[in-house]
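Q: My labmate handed me this sequence with no annotations at all. I'd like to see what the chain might look like in three dimensions before we decide whether it's worth expressing. Could you predict it?
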Amino acid sequence: MSDATNSLNQRKQNALPRGNAVMCDWYASKAENATLTDTEGRDVIDFAGGIAVLNTGHRHPKVVAAVKEQLDKFTHTAFQVVPYESYISLAERINARAPVEGPAKTAFFSTGAEAVENAVKIARSYTNRHGVITFNASFHGRTMMTMAMTGKVAPYKQDFGPMVPSVFHARFPDEKTVSVEQALNSLDDLFHCDIAPHNVAAIVLEPVQGEGGFRVTPPAFMRALRELADKHGILLIADEVQTGFGRTGKLFAMENYDVKPDIITMAKSLAGGFPLSAVCGRAEVMDAPNPGGLGGTYAGNPLSIAASHAVLDVIEEEQLCQRSQQLGSELVSCLQEVQTACPAISEIRGLGSMVALELSSADVARQVQSTAMAAGLLLLTCGQKGNVIRFLYPLTIPTEQFRQGLTILVQALKQHAA
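A: Here is what I predict for the chain of 418 residues:
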């Protein structure tokens, strides 16, 4: 590591709070599609995608062009003060594609946590109820409300005092340690012990848990939740902040199921690297809050809106949903092949290109991650125990580079998981 990089690391330590943890000890100087280049000129294959933000890759030419064009017009008006057509047309595009029942409406915000918080506000306004049910190992954000909804203590909730009330956690069915029946029984226990169903505004879940280890919601459980929500007048909210925009092989992960949510939250790859989030839901539900009840100074920033229009174009024109399925299938086949030589691999799971590799321990996962990094491949871990490697490469990654990344991964697994 050069003196310049060491100096930056020291400056970072002196200037930033320790709670703002940073994984890499090297620094980006530029990026293109699936390649990150650090300040020392080393190229790294990006299988992290800015934590699922870059399904269309770093600096996709169409995204860059759209933002540059908007930059020459205006950068900010605050939509709730002076509106602009691009916000409306993007909402129309999402309304047409989102898998909700009947007419839909969409509001834009800035971050995933902000989208989830507003979805809860909308649900409470529509139902005139206060309770929110989420699941263990879930992740919904770091704000006070979404931190309470998140089903993992360390590092997200510890030492931050009492959580926001009226949030309850049920068990998530992973079909290995918790069955669908057991998960449904945990909901029944909540209704008998903690909150009456007629006081519950919403059940919120990720179709595929992100930080929780890419655990896929079983279809039978999703159907049961829809039936339960309908029975008790509860709204079903799908948190698609990490799963959306082609990652699972569909534009939205809920398209993999035969039921529809009432509200969908989205962010991350919605705008290809620019901060934008959205809440889309049934029109009557979305219209529940009074005028002024929703919004934000930067909500639906015009640069991010322009980027999102380009992202939707790229996903369609480059057939990235199909590409997601192809890449994910190749990755799973590769992992299954190496699994025979690596007993530390306990499970391979996922949908499309939202694939996870569960290992025997967090130590093994960190060793694989570190060795891959040294060889030029950036990986992320996740899971309740930190023993899962997740794959979030851009769906635009060139095939040759993708396979180069798989070669590095296999070498790292054979070294540490055998």
